[in-house]
User: Fold these one by one.
Assistant:
Number 1:
Amino acid sequence: MILLNNDLSDLAQAIVHGKAPSSQIDTSNQNYSVAIGIEVYRNNYRGNLHDTLVGVYPVIEQLVGKDFFRLLTRRFIGQNLSRSGNLDHYGAEMADFVAAFEPAQELAYLPDVAALEWACHCAYFADDAASLDIDKLAQIPPEQYPNLILHIHPACHLVRSRYPITAIWHAHQLSASGDFHIDLDSGSSNALVSRKNDVVLVDKLTEADAAWLQSIQAGTQLGEATASTLEHYPDFNLQAALLKLVAQNVFENFTLGETP
Amino acid sequence: MKKPANDSLQCIAGIGLRAPHYCEVLEKLPKLGWVEVHNENFSGGGAPLRTLLKVREHYPVSLHGVGMGLASTAPLDQAHLSALHRLCEAVQPAAVSEHLCWNAVPDMNINGSMVINDLLPFPYTLEALSHVAGRVEQVQETLGRRLLLENLSSYLSFTSSEMSESEFLSELSRRTGCAILFDVNNLYVNARNLGVDAKAFIKSLPADAVAEYHLAGHCMRDGCLVDTHSTQVCTEVWELYEFALQQIGPRPTLIEWDSDIPALTVLQGEAEKAQYRLEKYHDFAK
């Protein structure tokens, strides 16, 4: 496979980095030059990745405009190689990329909006899973509640931000109506991404609910997660939070942990 | 390899089904022989899978891959393969196909793969043949079924090739038991771009191994025909298709259209043209 790998690596370097290909490429073709053949592949390569990013980050594209987004994706593609034969896996690094992208520094909320869009993208393609069986949960004796470990549905994500990203995201959906005025100083926003009946939902969580869910996501038992949340947010209401999150299809199932 | 499942596609024309037509197809249930989808678009659950399962209730489905990279020198992506396996279990497709191409090389910097999400050509050597054959066998073993492998449209060729693409495909089929998906437009593109003798290619294919035809449109950029799947099938490709129907015989035939996707009725019109020719040459068996 050594010779094959030499030929493929050489063509890969030509397509991705624009390096001159080796002499293994047949140059006897009369219709067009090798450079044009390489350019077709280079255009395909960059075009496919650009189109993928347009599909994943429609809100970012609206926020910065088409031309700026094209500049942004060109730089992103230059710095981030594809690692999967499935294009749906491309673009995960966008939040980190825009955080460091000099021309977008004024838009401080952009990285968190990108993180939210990536979470929505992942939620859309996530595996199917069961929804929490409330009847089964009701059979657990109350003294064992503190030991409950709630397992998060694969389509559920929490994106916490200092900026009102939930409002920004909703204002840029096709279904949004009218001009939204969003006060960027209106405070933090905890965006809950979930999938219900195959539809991806984005909802805002309170600080207390988000802190509790983050703890649960980390695998913390119900008792400990609730106690630590109440320490910081004395008005945290476990029952209300559970009802809301179960309704949002956040949990897949539960197990019982050991008493610490 | 386990007992290969018979491909149950009927010898009629179908269309490539893409996202813009999902709703219309499920609402109107138009007369379509069968549909083919890209399996990469259905690698998880949720709405995409649910939609495909609904489509499957009404039409035979063929799964067509663009991302396995069977000639890649990077290791076979096991996650990609197991996603395809799960999809096969869920959908019970009438056929599963991939391309004779590569998309990834090892990236020593990260101990991983550098992927180019495209269908890329490689030199047709004995070394490549045994490499690709091993990977095709792995895929067939995992899926427990025969794979259909499609000839490629190429914009470059290699001086290191030791055989033609048709010789490579024929030998690959002989070694692994894989079938051949003959894309007539790809052959036409290669004939124009690289000087491949199209009729000789068709005559040299083992007719018994050919299990499906693809038809599509292309466009011209800087003297190079690019396989864009963005237009109607051109006259020359219809002529080559008829030549193939006489030489090889009628097989399930797909109309592919992937960019600038037109109204569903346009695809149906193209499929009718293919169906007409399938019936015209139905006596040319084998």
Number 2:
Amino acid sequence: MTGDEACAEGALAAGCRFFGGYPITPATEIAEHMSKRLPEVGGTFIQMEDEIAAMASILGGAWAGQKSMTATSGPGFSLMMENIGLGVCTETPCVVVNVQRVGPSTGLPTMGAQADMMQARWGSHGDYRIIALAPMSAQEIFFQTITAFNLSERYRTPVFIMTDEIVGHMSEKVIIPPADRIITEWRPKPSGRKDRFLLYKPGKNGVAPMPAAGEGYNVHVTGLTHDEKGYPVMSVEAQEQMMDRLCRKIDDNLDDIIMTEAHHLDDAEVVLVSYGISARTSLAAMQQSRAMGMKVGFLRLITVWPFAQRQIAALAERVKALVTVEINLGQMHLEVTRAAAGKTPCHLVGHAGGTIISPDQVIATIKEVY
Amino acid sequence: MRRQLAARHGSGVNDMLKQIMITGFGGQGVVLAGRIVGQAAAIGDKLESTFVQSYGPESRGGACSAQVTIADGPIYFPYIKNPDILVCMSQSGYDKYYTELKPDGVLILEQDLVKPTAPQDHFAIPCTRFAEELGNKMMANIIMIGFVAAITEVVSLESARDTVLASVPKGTEQKNLKAFERGWDYALATLKGRRNKAAGQIGVVA
């Protein structure tokens, strides 16, 4: 099955029962598959009039009590940005898939890129934290979609799956485990007196329990700065408190959220850093350069946001160079460079998009810096 | 879950790795052919496979290619530069890729649509003509799959046949099965012809 189909199946396995979307290459197959499968499991699929509405619809779906998802590509991701901020501000669990294609603007619609990585982090206005994952295969996009839902439910926040055209359209074997082997989490539900309920009073992991609209709790959901009741409060103090909570629930749980995969880091002199489809290029390059006798390691970012700052900083202390491999002109490379803090040289293997990076390109850079 | 992922992607080099490129123009079923070969290997033969495709914006007539990699372990890089097996359903596909074939690779041509320009050893089948004889030229790709499977043994007969049956529109299974067998039988006859020729001309490689 293709990566796109595996993503849709992962969403269904995670318990997603609402999809609001607008078709766009190369993410259309996710919507197509959901439109076919959701009615079979009692879910709802709506094709909205555009991506702005699609994003709004999944926030509504989440507040109606459903696990909700949308999928898009660059141009649609841009349109979704304002409502993504609304999702962050109202602490609405949902999953947004970006099957990245070449931009800016319409770009190369049928060809892959990884150039929306910074947009994923900073695309909506204001200060905020976000969670984004980057799968590298059809099998992994299945599992990561489940993980994305679990993280979004656990931390009550939109979670991105930053995949790309290549993973989305590639067909591979996908093994779907039996339902009882799949762990699915649900947002914490409120308990106690309904009239005393506070919509944004955090529980012990910093996340507030979340009722659905219509369950009898007072649910006031606004994008204005609000207090624990959810009511707008136009003050510097309220803003500070709200932002503190929004950031803290992510910042205090980095070890739980950040997933990385280490390959041959123990003896590595040069370490590749990559994610998504470029991680496969990096694995091939690592294997081939090891066969040539070069001690090359690889750190794969499974979670791209929040950034694995601590892991990179530790590597920077002891390696000869860090090489970031990504299909853009340097985005996560900037983060790697920042985290390395001048302790080791940081290099980029990237290009403007439209095709996968070949292992040969990576090996050429490894040879230069080794 | 994390451990599962690491196990899948963590191991090293493959003992077996075959890269197959199928080229043609849009409408010939090149993409479906690639998908069937990949799926037959992954699900029928329990191997790993990746399948990527490239095509232009037009759905009919433009150049397109399907790239299938089959291995007994994880496949990192899904794109193919020098295929082990090159299948050309169109002249432009042949012109573009024939020099990329590995020295010991297998070249397979649509006999009526491709005129080789280099003295390369190759197998050929007029699969479009055969498909027309069977009543629908849309089945040329299925005939080609049967031919490729028998010549190269890159996927097993059972897996290829089962995947064809699972991939074609309902109600057309028997027709497509016939098409698959047409390609398969033609391949066996071709191989037999080569063997006889080799036996009759001792010392000459056919």
Number 3:
Amino acid sequence: MMWQESVNVLVYKWLELPQGDKLSDALNFFIYDTVKILFLLIVIIFIVTLLRSYFSTEKVREYLSKKHEYTGNVLAALFGIITPFCSCSAIPLFLGFLQARIPIGVTFSFLISAPLNNEIAIAMLFGIFGWKVTALYIGFGLLVAIIGGIIIGRLGLEKDVLIEVKPIEGEIHAQDRKIVFKTRLIDAKEYTLDILRKIWLYVLVGVGVGAFIHGYVPTEFITSIAGADNPFAVPLATLLGVPMYSNAAGVMPLIEVLTSKGMLLGTALSFMMAITALSLPEAMILKRVMSLKLIAIFFGTVTLGIVGVGYLFNAIL
Amino acid sequence: MKIEILGTGCSKCKALEEATKQAVAQSGMFAQIEKVEEIQKIMEYGVMSTPGLVIDGKVVSTGKLLSVPEIVDLIKAS
């Protein structure tokens, strides 16, 4: 809150802008939000990256290969939170898991959970909505990943994997590479700066548009589209989220403003999950190793799960 | 010496290839650099996070864009 007071002083005292005026309030909101979000992004991404350097997909694979279904689904979803994941290595990861004789359903639990719990989304969520909403997002995300994985595992879709996977003989062992702590720190710093360079503009644009809505768009308008008045707000938000992949940084500030103007939290959660979990570029990449049917089932299951979470949430709260 | 860069064509994989070329030039060693893009071959190395760096058939790094000095160290160590 100290930060809000500092921004108040800057905008209303030093710049001598009138308080209560739409433009100066929007400017106040913009400065307050961008600095707060960028600061939290740096801190959270740095910490998450540092923690993640202790986990590798290779080690997770070794561990999961010894687990059965169900337990495997739960663990795979949990590992999705802490393992570094990039959609560009979705294929080697997918095939690598199958190689280790990990069931296809367990593999999908990981594949759903990992992008859902990416560090940018988590950092933005925490920075904007606080730990409660972040925990709900992670919790319900895990639920979608676990149930989605179990359903896909049940459908017997092994033949829809287009590349023949040769199982690894015998026990699976991940190589352990010793990395000194200082290197981990440097790596985490580099990675954080790299991410920041990629997303800072999206954050600015997102908060800018948010500040505009904050100041100029009437609450009734938002409520009629995204609030309780519209029973189809949840599926609509989910569909809108799909093309916004990797723009969690730009969209989250918008969602903040929309929720403050009457968008229900369940609808907001669905929107956020659709942004991170359902990515068209990832689908295109996966097409090289999966049949269209398998991809459609994968996306269909996750979509239903996300819509379900949204409705459930709106009903409870 | 044979150095292989494993990657399915992501931007980090290309950057790693460039860095490796520079590192080889700096180290003064003679090395053959090869880009491996075929998914089956990448899987044979057991690598799941690209880009991967393989020196003389041994995986020395995965999922990371190494800096030129880091690659020089790896080349000298093997």
